[in-house]
Structures are given as C-alpha cells and as structure tokens.
Amino acid sequence: MKWWIFVLLAGCAAGSAVAAETRQERGKRVVDEALQALGGNQFLHMEDRVESGRAYSFYNRQLTGLSVAKIYTRYLAPDPGKVALRERDAFGRDEASAQLFTETEGWEITFRGARPLDDQRVARFKDSTLRNVLYILRQRLGEPEMSFYSEGTDFWENRPMEIVDITDAENLTVTVYFDQLTKLPVRQVFRRRNEEYKDFDTEETVFANYRDVGGGVKWPCSLLRKRNGDKIFEMYSDSVEINKDLKDNLFLVPGNAKMLPKAK
Fold it and tell me: What is the pTM of this model?
C-alpha cells in the first residue's frame, strides 16, 4: 500500500512540473534521465565491454542451444545512421567457435575455418544494433533528426513505465519502456520487415538485473529477446567488465583460418 501511495504522490508532483511539456520535450527528458541513471558521462565514455555468462537459444518455443558465452564489444567513433562498434560472440569454455561483426560484415569462426555470414544475418545485426536503446543512448543521441516522442505512461509487469518512441532520420522507430522509479530502460519493441513472408515481425527485448559494472556505469545482466511473442534468445551474465582495452585482433578473422564459402 505504501508503494502505491508513493507512486501516486510522485505522479502528482511530477504532473504539475511537466504539465507544460510537449510530448517531444517529455520524451527527450525521459531519455536524458535514463542516460544519467546508466552512469551519465561515464556511460558515454565506456570504450568496451566483456559480458560472460550462459546463453540459451530457442526455436518454436523449444530450447535448441545452451552454451557458456562471452560477448566482447568495442565502441568506435559515432557515425550517424551506421553501426559504429565491433562485436565478438564467443561460445564454449575454450571459445572455439565465435561470430564476429564489424561495421560492414559478419563472420562465423569454427574449427573448420571462417565463413562469411549471409547478407540477411548481417542486415539483422545492423538493424538490431541501430535500434537497441542502449546503443542509441551510447552512440546516437547527437544524430540529426533523431526524435523522441512520449507515448505517456502505463504499467508493465506491475511497474509504472514512461513510454517513448525513438525515431531516427531513416524513420526507423523503437518503442522503449523506462521504469518510472529507476529511470532505466527495461523493455523495447520494434517491427522489422520479414522478407520471406512479406509481412512484419515484432522484435521485443527485455533488460533486467542491472548492476554497477564499474565507475558508476549500470548494465543489464539479464537479456531476453522475443520474436512475435516467442522466446528466441536469453543470456544471463555472471560478470560484466568495462574498459578492458580490447585489441583489434580480437575482432579480426584469424590469419591462419581456412576461408569457407559464404553462408546461404
């Protein structure tokens, strides 16, 4: 009961303060508050990150893969409308298999060699990255024509949320749910064109279990992705480390790897 009273009083106090806000101003304020909750200037200067834990893959609601996973990410200088990071997703305790993503291409690395990922897989990675709210907050806030539009408030999983549509210059939109109490982003939803069936898929990501990962920076240690309501990926990070001075060779195809034909 006390929790509900707190929310009600906080809402009344906030309501009088923001009554004159436009929806665009309110959306931008909510986003700015989220940035500060994530660590503010320290979050903006996070150079790289290593997430270690367990990853689960699903297909048709069935578990299809379980692995020890380590995700290496390094940010590059922001480039409006383009992916400006490199990522290595390594699997297994010996990290014998991995997927590499650069600004322009993707690779699958196994004991057999290195295989370029198919164009659709690379395109999905780019689209998912550009519309990931944590990437937007780190890399894209200063882009021209980036807009923030408040859709008001609602409850999600019994918690009060601020809902904001974030749209870029290419008119790509992601709807983000920000926790009113913590100010952190906890859910995002967007639609993506399905080229095979000529319709749209609804992509949903849930961020949870935020922890301080150093210098006041907060990062979610639980990640859940759904497509059209079905679970497709989960990861639970046992540790997250930032600013580890990750080197170029971590994100390059090994020079001695056999070159395999492009995936179809």
Answer: 0.91
